[in-house]
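Contributing: when you submit paired examples, paste them exactly as shown. First protein:
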Amino acid sequence: MSIAHHHPLIREALVRSLARRGEFAVAGHGDVDEVLAWVRDGGRSVVLASRTLPGVGRLLAALKGAEAPAGAPGVPVALLGEAGTARPAAVGLPPGASGYLPEDADASALSHAVHTLASGAAVLPASWIRHTGAAAVRADTRAPGAPLPLSLREREVLVLLGQGLTNQQIGKRLGLGAGTVKSYISAVYTKCGVDNRVQAALFAHGIEVLAA
């Protein structure tokens, strides 16, 4: 995957935090032409690009539209920006972007987002989805904007899912048996309107998934 950011300190911090997880190769690029060269050389997984990267519109057009490099159409690009943005109108999500993520997001959240983007789904802050009424995965299972109907224990389980813990680790942390952990996770899935651990982990970080 590629981190495309014109600010070298932010770029390197993101590259290091994701690379340390050891889940995928991470490259850092300072401008659009570097990203496109990386794509042409075979780097065709996911691009996380600063929304203020000079020429980001050209990058989106190149990787999503008719100008795509030979053999490299459909590379998902999510924009990185301010964490406090409350609605799409504040920044605008241009055509071709597969989502929006806060650039100071936890490395675990970014990692989950990369896997989700690679699967063909989109990721957006939960506040955007509630504000626009966009239909998230299984969104009919809860009222938009309503507080999560989770018990205290279910909230604890959700937080640990967001940290990437396994069922065994969750059970050890909370003093619960394997069957009880599975029951709590099932309840979390149902109440949060998610289908799997990755979606639950993203939800724990305030990010929701839109079906492909």
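Second protein:
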Amino acid sequence: MSWPSILEPAHAYALWAPSYPAHAHNAVMQTEERAMLGLLPSNLSGITVLDAGCGSGRYMRHVLDRGTVAVTGVDLSLPMLLRAQDELASCADPSRYCLMQGSVDALPVPDAFADIALCGLVLGHLEGLDAALGELRRATRPGGMVLCSDVHPIGHALGWARDFKSAGKRYAVRHTQHLYHHWHAACAAHGLAIESVLEPMLDPNDIPAGAHFDARALEVPVALIFSLRRIP
């Protein structure tokens, strides 16, 4: 099997957007999503949410279903934002959501903008955590929740790639390994208290029959998830 071409995130998602689903579309994402949603309050009535790196809007749909008063999705990729707009327009009241173009490390929102900030499977696309966690903290109200996930760093060590096909060619998105001590240092520097850390394992029932995958994935955690609290 040939190795995929590694692309910068903006280029990769421009190619991937037309076919990118607005739901967790593989076993790793399903595992990550169950853990994230387990930490997210089940009733978001009266709560405002920021989805930083919203992609095709999968977490925006979840928080709308849980009753958020308003959710704002920010993403660097305009094609992915257009994908999210198509998905949300078919299932949500436009007055309850907003989409904006911008980077997680330079969020286009005011200070203390949201009660909860989400960032799902995005931070590995950045070379460092510091600026992004600083921005997530800034955009969250004092005492608010910051909920982040990423591919577990063990996956990087095992050679896993976030790959996809476009026009018959195979590509992968550039990904940077962020270890626990990187998270700890960045949280300490920006006034984010670590409330819980999850390292979920794959559920074998999520793996389609006949799928080709690294069998070691059943023996190691596949995602790293942090529930953080902005220290006032």
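If you have annotations for the second protein, write them as plain sentences, like these:
Residues 5-230 form a domain with the Rossmann fold fold (CATH 3.40.50.150).
The two ends are 51 Å apart (CA to CA).
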